[in-house]
Write a structure and sequence with these properties.
about 325 residues; alpha/beta; seven-stranded mixed β-sheet; five-stranded mixed β-sheet
Length: about 325
């Protein structure tokens, strides 16, 4: 196996290139994805190599992008739609919920919807309003959609190819504040034998408490675990990866061992993914828990101005504080 040191952004670019090479029915479409290569340069060079009919610069109309992709998917294509920023997805929300999520079900399986909706999500880049949202709960709550979030270059490279190859509609969340973090990527990975798309991954073994995160917060959770180790407390960290469907069997086993669990995400706490995860862990592990499942999240406010975002986002200290509180019960 040949490993290369890649950023998450470059890993996504290479994964999309592999998907375009593997299937002539794969198309990429979105605002500025072609000539510019995307605002984050994730699609850089793809239009030059695959042409304007396969890497398509669309009008500034998210509902039009998704609606067009629905028609393409029905006709056998595999469109990959880029929503330029998370906060721009809401004009397309009607299409995603009313059409994308329901077409396969209401046709009794006769109509497949093999499309991927790529969304750079989360904060931490000093952006203006509508550029730092965490909309994952809207989509995870919608029956008929699958929702995944990558957190490492290796997962970015493999997961985007798996998502494109899937016959299900998938919302693919990319941690924009982590686009430039590097890691080893096995560029000749065989997708048939790759880690499953909808499976949780153990990111760091531990014995004292279980910490769950996804997307940009995985790095934060790992940093907290490294800091806690200096004080003699070993945190077991899981990267959830798949938000719908959730894969929690390994998490349940961990919580039964540790008796303590903290869930971390950037989105506000109210009716967020953390609430669903906490409920499932409480149902399955009630007699093993030594404290309630705690959540470390963004606050229940609209995303703040850039100068305040580091006060809004969960950080190492807030994660460690929650871990400390679980041991105070």
């Amino acid at each position: 196996m040949m490993a290369e040191k890649l950023t998450i952004g470059k890993a996504l670019n290479l994964g999309l290139r592999r998907a375009l090479e593997a299937d002539p029915k794969v198309l990429i479409m979105g605002e500025d994805v072609g000539k510019l290569g995307g605002v984050f340069r994730i699609t850089d060079g793809l239009q030059k190599d695959f042409g304007e009919e396969r890497v398509i610069d669309t009008p500034l109309a998210e509902s039009g992008i998704i609606g067009t992709a629905v028609g393409l998917a029905i006709r056998g294509y595999r469109p990959v739609c880029e929503i330029q920023f998370d906060g721009f997805v809401y004009p397309a929300y009607d299409q995603i919920v009313s059409q994308v999520a329901k077409m396969h079900y209401r046709s009794q399986g006769r109509v497949k919807m093999p499309m991927v909706i790529r969304i750079p999500f989360g904060g931490g880049i000093g952006a203006v309003e509508h550029h730092s949202e965490s909309p994952e709960a809207y989509f995870a709550h919608t029956a008929g959609l699958k929702v995944v979030a990558c957190a490492t270059p290796e997962d970015a490279y493999v997961m985007i190819q798996q998502a494109v190859a899937s016959d299900d509609p998938i919302v693919f969340l990319e941690p924009k504040r982590r686009y430039y973090e590097k890691g080893d990527v096995e560029v000749d990975t065989d997708l048939a034998g790759a880690y499953p798309l909808h499976a949780t991954r153990l990111a760091r073994p531990g014995t004292d408490a279980t910490v769950l995160a996804y997307g940009p917060m995985v790095r934060t959770a790992l940093d907290a675990a490294n800091a806690a180790a200096g004080d003699g407390r070993e945190l077991e960290v899981f990267d959830l990866r798949s938000l719908s469907p959730l894969d929690l069997d390994a998490v349940f086993e961990s919580v039964r061992r540790t008796g303590h669990c903290v869930v971390v995400h950037e989105a506000p706490s109210n009716v967020g993914l953390g609430a669903e995860i906490a409920a499932r862990i409480t149902e399955e592990c009630f007699y093993s828990l030594e404290a309630p499942v705690l959540r470390v999240t963004g606050y229940d406010t609209p995303y703040p101005a850039a100068r305040l975002e580091e006060d809004f986002l969960p950080d190492l200290d807030r994660v460690l504080d929650a871990v400390d509180r679980t041991f105070g019960w």
